[in-house]
Design goal:
305 residues; alpha/beta; Rossmann fold; eight-stranded mixed β-sheet; 13 helices; 8 strands; 41% helix; disordered N terminus
Length: 305
Amino acid sequence: MLKIALTLGALALAAPAVAQVPDFPSSFKTQEITTNGATIHVRVGGQGPAVVLLHGYGETGDMWAPMAADLARNYTVVVPDLRGLGLSSKPQSGFDKKTQAGDVAGVLDTLKIERADLVTHDIGNMVGFAFAAQHPQRVGRFALIDAPVPGVGPWEDILKNPLLWHFRFGGPDMERLVAGRERIYLDRFWNEFSATPARFSEASREHYAKLYALPGAMHSGFAQFAAFDQDAIDNRAYLAAGGKLTMPVLAVGGEKSFGTAMAAVMKAAATDVTEGVIPDSGHWIMEENPTATVAMVRAFLDKGR
């Protein structure tokens, strides 16, 4: 299945319709790292202290290309696709964020990176939080962007928001309902969570829709959400046992999305929280306002140097 996914993924990446999707610099290398029951597709480039960029649902590690290009000037930048998404393998299980934090640990071990900063978005926030809670000594600084963390702060109230209906979308027919209609399903998120939907370009929409149409990708996406209840249990256990995170945290919200609420969430789980808001942006910060996002994240990371 991995060979099929890689072949189809290569065809999707080569299609003319995706020509506008930002590319990683040619100096970045890709590799497949087998660890923890999955094979993780990873892009690595740059030199200097390590920083890991973790994407969320509706995108892949490709979302980070503009930020990776900027940070690679003086950081070693590591950009995985989460298990089940993008060009990573599509296992049937392991989508709780505790397990996926093990994927991150395995990638860093393979690359011989002991300590790294984290920059995360959406479900990447949840994977990054699980990694930071389990391995606080391996995280220097942690920037989380525009998504809650299961079990942390006002989680139960957040679940009641009707815009987040997809958190509970499940049942035996869900994959059959979207098979061949991946673009229709994903457009809902790209449109409803954008301040300006047109900024999530047609090229990007086609690019990601093809990747999410790969065998097993939609199953994996649904499994990411289905694991939230277990993630909440795990996160509450981390905080009860180890207390709040103590590394510097940047909590960033899109102005027309989580906004300052992102910092309110993280203050329930970390002792050193800086609030950030990306202006003129909804949830899709790297499509809607990449310049401001890169500048804010870089300024935060550079403080630790």
